[in-house]
Design brief:
four-stranded mixed beta sheet
């Protein structure tokens, strides 16, 4: 599973911060975050469109690119969770997720 995760492209819900709808060099977004019952914050990722619930904007992102983005802009995020609303979800603490790409 770890080897597959290294090269995976997943769907990440985002909040658009740009003033326009066109994707250009000034296009800015930030990942949507969700909180669990213990008040831990996670970035949700989805394996396919049918898993995405209630988010209007999303992008396809390689997991390596997400890891680089997180390292460049660290926030108070506890980890990532793949398919968070599925009975087959995968939760990874942030340090474990980032170590995959070192």
């Amino acid at each position: 599973m770890i080897e597959e995760l290294k090269t995976s492209k997943l769907i990440m819900p985002v909040e658009i911060e740009s003033d326009n709808d066109e994707i250009d060099e000034s296009f800015r977004f930030r990942p949507v975050k969700i909180m669990d019952e213990n008040k831990k914050t996670f970035i949700p990722l989805y394996s396919d469109d049918s898993e995405v619930h209630g988010h209007t904007s999303a992008i396809d992102i390689y997991t390596k690119d997400l890891a680089n983005m997180i390292e460049d802009n660290p926030e108070n995020i506890n980890g990532v969770v793949i398919n968070p609303f599925s009975k087959f979800n995968v939760e990874l603490p942030m340090d474990s997720f980032l170590k995959i790409f070192k």
